[in-house]
TrEMBL record:
<feature type="transmembrane region" description="Helical">
    <location>
        <begin position="32"/>
        <end position="51"/>
    </location>
</feature>
<dbReference type="GO" id="GO:0008374">
    <property type="term" value="F:O-acyltransferase activity"/>
</dbReference>
<dbReference type="InterPro" id="IPR044851">
    <property type="entry name" value="Wax_synthase"/>
</dbReference>
<keyword id="KW-1133">Transmembrane helix</keyword>
<dbReference type="InterPro" id="IPR032805">
    <property type="entry name" value="Wax_synthase_dom"/>
</dbReference>
<keyword id="KW-0812">Transmembrane</keyword>
<dbReference type="GO" id="GO:0016020">
    <property type="term" value="C:membrane"/>
</dbReference>
<protein>
    <submittedName>
        <fullName>MBOAT-2 domain-containing protein</fullName>
    </submittedName>
</protein>
<keyword id="KW-0472">Membrane</keyword>
<keyword id="KW-0808">Transferase</keyword>
<dbReference type="GO" id="GO:0006629">
    <property type="term" value="P:lipid metabolic process"/>
</dbReference>
<feature type="transmembrane region" description="Helical">
    <location>
        <begin position="6"/>
        <end position="25"/>
    </location>
</feature>
<feature type="transmembrane region" description="Helical">
    <location>
        <begin position="57"/>
        <end position="76"/>
    </location>
</feature>
<feature type="domain" description="Wax synthase">
    <location>
        <begin position="228"/>
        <end position="315"/>
    </location>
</feature>
<dbReference type="Pfam" id="PF13813">
    <property type="entry name" value="MBOAT_2"/>
</dbReference>
<comment type="similarity">
    <text>Belongs to the wax synthase family.</text>
</comment>
<feature type="transmembrane region" description="Helical">
    <location>
        <begin position="340"/>
        <end position="361"/>
    </location>
</feature>
Amino acid sequence: MLQPYSFNSALWIPYLSLILLALILKPSPYRRLLFLPILPLTAYVLLSTTGAFNTDYFLGISWLPLFWFASDYILLTDVQRALRQRATLTTTNGTDVDKEQSIETASIWRRTQWAVALLLSPRGVGWEHEPTTALPARTPAGTSRAAFVAQSLRRALVYFIIHDACNLHVRWNPMFHADGPGWRADGWAWRAVVVLSWGLSTYTSTILGATLLAAVCVACGVSEPAEWPPLLGPLREAYTIRKFWGRVWHQLMRRFVTTHGKVLAHRVLKLRPGTNSSAYVQLYTAFAISAALHYAAETMALHSWHGGALVFFMLQACAITLEDFLIFMGRTYAGIRGGFAMRLVGYAWVCIWFTLTLPVWEEPLVSAGIMHEGLPVSVLLGLWRGEWVLPPLSVHE
């Protein structure tokens, strides 16, 4: 690879400003020109480094979704005419707050508010394009702020305890260490344990941060409880690979992967909407974009082309295709209609699949030390042995 440049955090200012400006400007064929400087800025970041592995990786994971959102909002979608906030939003006191429907004729201040709200709503919560069937259920209407904050804090405590236990396992198990034997060294049983531990650790850390943020925003009156459906769906839904990615995992990238998939299927390939060919073109496009995004981030961090994200994410689309076929055959020719027993089979299939494929993606990152910056404190170890602060793990340990 080329020698990386030193990343300058001031680049966030022109980058975000360009995207916001494109959302604020009234509809115009010249609006697309604002995407031109976004391309070299993104290329520069892909060749940059902060000097720290984890920071480089999370820089890529943060920057690149914005690139794809910019592609959607600037190149593919006439946002002010196509995207609408919902007409009303029910507040905690049961009243309805009207939302302006037409934005292109609004004042520049109102368009700026609208643009910021759109950019801060990657899942489309409160917008007409919100994927309501894919997101977890919202807090029931009429839930008070105090009740919502209390519920969020209780959930956050449970997530923290589970993450604390997983973090202690990461520190104890050398398979998570940079100089360890890797995830595939000690047989399938330990491989399954490591994958499960990583999964729970990632799930709880992701939803913990979102839950605390929701509690703070609602407590401060910035937003309403109904605007904060859980970031991740319930694990009980993870009995197929499709449901895992479409219902359990976060939907922060659904908007732009769906838009690009539909453009490829319908505008470029001229496939008829609702057909299997259209659906699977969109499926593989979605995972190809996710694969490219994660591969670029790990390439930035590893400073090498040997990451596993491309293979891992494209395998997910293949697995969904296979399970769709098997479910179709089972329903059509064997009369299988689901039920508790089939769900157990589904859970086993999902566990086996991720045990098989997750090391392809994570082992290069683990070898570089991505697991060495875990939670620095432990309540469980503190209560057990009085060790509240954990010593840092050295990448070369």
